[in-house]
Amino acid sequence: MEIFSRYTRVTEPDGSPMRVRAALSLITKALDELLSEYEEDFDTDTRWCIKWFEDHQWESADYGKAEQMAHRYNTSVPGLVHAGVVKSTAGKTTLIKPADLPAKYDPTTDDRLTVWEVAIHLSRLIEGKGPGTGIDAAGELLARARTRSGIDEDTVKGLAYLLHNICENRGWTESQRWFNNLVSSWPDLQTAARAAEKRGVRVEADQLF
């Protein structure tokens, strides 16, 4: 993308001008290859969530299908419910939308923390309009999350890119906007996280983010 934005003319190997459609195809292919590398860094619960999201987005689907898929990813639907990423009732399983996640959340006390959960909570805070939301609150959550083993902020960002790409390919406009806002806010989010660490802020678990 940097190459195509830097130069006024990009050519094919035969010297002919490269058309926009061909350029976009190359960009998409490169992005897909980059994002596939991130998947190796995701925990098993997050891998399940990505596949379920890709198939169903936020819609409910059959519990049996969810459990069958969970076995392939070495997890379980009850485990995913315990992790706080899905709800499962009346034979149906559903990923929890950012807006439906609990306002009280502390990643330092989460006994089944996942990359997916961190990314979705960050999206909730960035998109939120009420008290205890916004970039500063999201930055503090990120600062607290990255103290935990297995949570790397680049992997969280990579997940946001991946979800944005999935939404774009499927035309899921609202969800694409959520993840686009998370990605585009990342520099400010990192600044807010560093500021929280510099202040040495340690919020009590019962405080609203």
Describe this structure in words.
It is a single chain. This protein has 209 residues and is mainly alpha-helical. The protein contains ten helices and three strands; from the N terminus they run αααβααββααααα. It has helices at residues 2-6, 20-39, 44-56, 63-72, 77-83, 115-127, 135-145, 153-170, 173-184, 186-199, and strands at 61-62, 86-89, 92-95. It has a three-stranded antiparallel sheet. A hairpin with a 2-residue loop joins β2 and β3. α6 packs across α8 (153-170), α6 crosses α9 (173-184) and α8 (153-170) packs antiparallel against α9 (173-184). It is globular, with a radius of gyration of 19 Å. The protein starts with a helix and ends in a 10-residue tail after the last helix.
Offer a few descriptive terms.
209 residues, mainly alpha, 3-stranded antiparallel sheet, 10 helices, globular
Number of helices: 10
Order of helices and strands: HHHEHHEEHHHHH
Share in β-strands: under 5%
How many DSSP E strands?
Answer: 3
Separation of the first and last Cα atoms: 36 Å
Helix percent reads: 55-70%
Placed side by side, the strands forming the largest sheet appear as 1-3-2
As residue ranges, the low-confidence spans are: 203-209
Q: Helix- and strand-based class?
A: mainly alpha
| Average pLDDT taken over every residue | 85
- Large-scale geometry: globular
Task: Give a summary of the structure in a few sentences.
With 209 residues, this protein is mainly alpha-helical. The chain has helices at 2-6, 20-39, 44-56, 63-72, 77-83, 115-127, 135-145, 153-170, 173-184, 186-199, and strands spanning 61-62, 86-89, 92-95.
